[in-house]
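User: New here, any thoughts?
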Amino acid sequence: MSSRGRAALLAALLLGGTPALASTAALKAEVDELRVALDRLRQEQADLRARIDAAGASRPRLESDLATLRTRLDGLEAQVRAIAEHQVAADQRLEGLAAGNARILERLDGLERRAAAAPVGPGPTGDAPSPAPGATTTGALLAGGADDDPAEAYRKAYADYTAGHYDLAGLGFARVLELSPRGPLADDAVYWLAEIEAAGGRNDKAIAGFSRVISEFPEGDRVPAATLRKGLLLIEANRIGEGVLQLDHLVRKHPSSDEARLARNKLRALGVAP
């Protein structure tokens, strides 16, 4: 791939994250607004307590007003917590995408260097056989026809993923595994297939996919991210103990990774010492 091509790819990957950035900014703005409302309600609560102390005759009515205000305050605090959790999840997703972008470019550069160093043999002779009538393959469904190069299939699939075309991306990552099931991009393909399942709300399948990354590619660089995502999905599914064990294992096994930092933050939020 030429330097111009890599630049175009990087631009596409970064632009693909723009909606996620906008979503995160909106979440942060909403959290700020809710926190202002919380401060206002807390001040009203303090004022009511002062009025209760100063006006014994109207105490029952004031206490009723205070109970109503307390209910509103509890509800608003719950909203703030829920939105803050969504914001953390969005930040984690953005960080994962940024790390993925860097890994993709590094791997594509490595594959290009290998291809350039490989000896060139004689080309094929004769016409390639035509597929049987009605036959189709995963690669034939991809834009641009069948891809026989795992790196090119991966590039197209990841571009589809960042653009939100999850069906096409799933076909592309499956094609990568079809072409090179144990190649240098195989663990990445399995990881993103799991992310596609998570994006579709199929958390059980996503957890199974992240488990596959951990078990089949234990030395791969996707293991920390897969462990983090598996742990968070288990917690989201109310399987708190299993999720905490995953995050704790991540912190101990990969203590200096960005994923371990996020795991520590989640464990602290759960009240569990990392």
Remarks:
- Residues 118-145 have pLDDT under 50 and may be disordered.
- Residues 59-117 form the longest helix (59 residues).
